[in-house]
Design brief:
142 residues, mainly alpha, 2 domains
């Protein structure tokens, strides 16, 4: 025996220390304990989510009414901005044709074809209306 005992003494002390730590909860948590804690936290979160979801309808309606009250004037502004942007796009097309920039005109036509195809596809998938755009400027697309 040198300086404090043999290997078996160290092993016995280490085993006793581990048992003491496990018995008094000072050791590292076992996987089963972690799962129980995770399950408990998950149950609390699910309960709180159910509470929030039960009051969401009323809150949604109140928030919607508040937004309409505050931003009710903005509908006209959005329409004016939309018509202004359409006029700007038309001005760009006219300028492109007047200066005979055929490469740019080709790209504009290609972009319009992609836009039309995407609109028809999304109109059919989302609304079951394969042609959701109407002829006048203030229809549903503004």
């Amino acid at each position: 025996m040198t300086n404090g005992g043999s290997r078996s003494d160290h092993a016995v002390r280490a085993g006793l220390a581990r048992r003491h730590a496990d018995a008094h909860g000072t050791g590292s948590p076992q996987p089963a304990d972690r799962r129980r804690v995770f399950l408990a936290v998950g149950a609390v979160v699910a309960g709180l989510t159910a509470v929030v979801a039960s009051s969401a309808r009323r809150t949604d309606a109140e928030v919607g009414n508040a937004v309409v009250t505050v931003l009710g004037w903005a509908g006209g502004l959005w329409r004016v901005m939309f018509v202004g942007l359409l006029a700007l796009a038309l001005l760009i097309v006219v300028n492109t044709l007047a200066r005979r920039r055929w490469d740019l005109a080709r790209d504009v036509v290609a972009a319009l074809l992609v836009l039309a195809a995407t609109g028809v596809l999304l109109g059919g998938v989302v609304n079951s209306d394969w042609l959701p755009v109407e002829g006048h400027v203030l229809s549903r697309w503004g």
